[in-house]
Amino acid sequence: MLSDRPYMRNDYDSRPTSVLTWILSALIAGFLLQNIFGLDMVRGRLGSNVVETLFALTPGQLMQGHFWTLATYPLLHANILHLLFNALGLFLLGRELLPLVGTRRFLAIVAAAVLTGAGLWLAVHFFNGGGVLLGASGCVMALFILFACFYPEREITFLLFFVLPVTVKPKYLAWILVGIDAFGFLFSELPGRDPGVAYSAHLGGILAAWVYFRYFHANNGWDRAAGIELPAWLRRRKQAKSATPFFKVNLRQPSAELRVEVDRILDKINSDGFGALTEEEKRVLDEAKDLLSRH
């Protein structure tokens, strides 16, 4: 029968769509809807655009009960360049960080950057005439700071003004960006001027990324990750994980047990990132890769 032939079967494993693809698709969809209904953002006030009225973050809309705008404002952008810069930043940084932290932690970092940026922006603008917050720039800043934490010494090259190639280490560029945002926040946004840039939202994203890397990335608990040695009676006791325990497997011959263990390790990488693996799991993965490729 035709169904018995291998090329007629539909049982091949299909890779799930990356969470980064979903995020970028949401940004593009939001911008398209925003422009379909007209672009009416004028000097920090909402126009007649129904999409912006419903989904951009403003103190007034929040007071009316539009709490979902705390999460939807990154889907809207002021113009096509605003969208392109943010989408490009999310793509380039996301493809580097997603394998390291895993899908769940990546989503948690993005969500924390969105909410922290919104909270800090609201704290500044709630009592000084309002304003409008939109765009995913805070998320991009969060991902870049996290990238600089993981790879502080890796040299990166970019085109300054799209013409002049510049090579710099991420740790130096991170400090430059933090300085620019801090200066703009203190001397432009905080005094009540309209800078046209949400420096406070950027700083909120930076704060979210720094807190994650310093207190949550390491597996030894927040007190050890921060480099703070607390007294023994104050340290958090590590709870036994409910995940499948590690099994000693025979690495000389491939077996069903070995394949099960490799699948478990790959699932752990997908959910928590490569950095969550133990040294023993990394050893098993390396040796099993060579062994399975020979059989």
Descriptive overview:
The protein is mostly helical. The chain has two domains: 19-225, Rhomboid-like fold (Up-down Bundle), CATH 1.20.1540; 256-293. Helices cover 57% and strands 3% of the residues. It is built from eleven helices and two strands. The protein has helices at 19-36, 50-55, 59-63, 69-72, 80-125, 137-150, 170-189, 199-216, 222-225, 256-272, 279-293, and strands spanning 156-160, 164-168. The chain has a two-stranded antiparallel sheet with strand order 1-2. α1 crosses α5. The two termini are 30 Å apart. Residues 1-9, 40-46 and 219-253 have low confidence and may be disordered.
Q: Would you spell out the secondary-structure blueprint of this structure?
A:
Elements: H1 19-36, H2 50-55, H3 59-63, H4 69-72, H5 80-125, H6 137-150, E1 156-160, E2 164-168, H7 170-189, H8 199-216, H9 222-225, H10 256-272, H11 279-293
Antiparallel strand pairs: 1-2
Helix pairs in contact: 1-5, 5-6, 5-8, 5-10, 6-7, 6-8, 7-8, 10-11
